[in-house]
Every structure is written in C-alpha cells, then in structure tokens.
Amino acid sequence: MNNFGRKAARGFSLLELVAVAGITVLIAAMATPRILVAMETVRLRSAANSVAGVLQNTRMAAVKSNSYYTAALQTVVSGGGTYRIVFADLNGNGTYTS
Length: 98
Hints:
Elements: H1 14-65, E1 70-78, E2 81-89
Antiparallel strand pairs: 1-2
C-alpha cells in the first residue's frame, strides 16, 4: 500500500487524554481547600460589614432624634436553620420588628 497520499491522523490518543484529565484532577484537588477558605473569609467579612452598618445606622438614628438607641442581637430559628439577626432596637422592646 502506498501511504504517500494519506493525511496523518488527527486528534489525541487515549493516553494523552487520561494524562490531561489526571493533571486537571490533581490541580482541582489542590485548589479546593484554598477556595473553601476564601469563601469563608468572604462570608465573615460580609457579616462584619453588615454589623458595622447596623451600628452606624443605630448611631445616626440616635443622633438624629437626640436619644439613646441600642443595637441588639436576636437568635431566630427558621426553615430548619438557626440565624442571628443584628438590628437597631429603635422602640426599646428588644425584639426585631420589620
């Protein structure tokens, strides 16, 4: 047979595909813990910024009305989860009212 007129086969071999898949899995396994830590850091910073905002809003309301207000923390159980709500207690009853 004469192979001079045929083009070379294109594509990847199975060995090359398995090697690339293995390297990809290895890199993903190494990156996962760092991604999880980064996500927790973002959640923590977001919560801290929310608390700082509530404290600032409480302070502004107190200055505006020339009276004392408190920021309160309340634990709420809802939807199978436990949540903590920080809020400006403007009416002084210690409970969150929307």
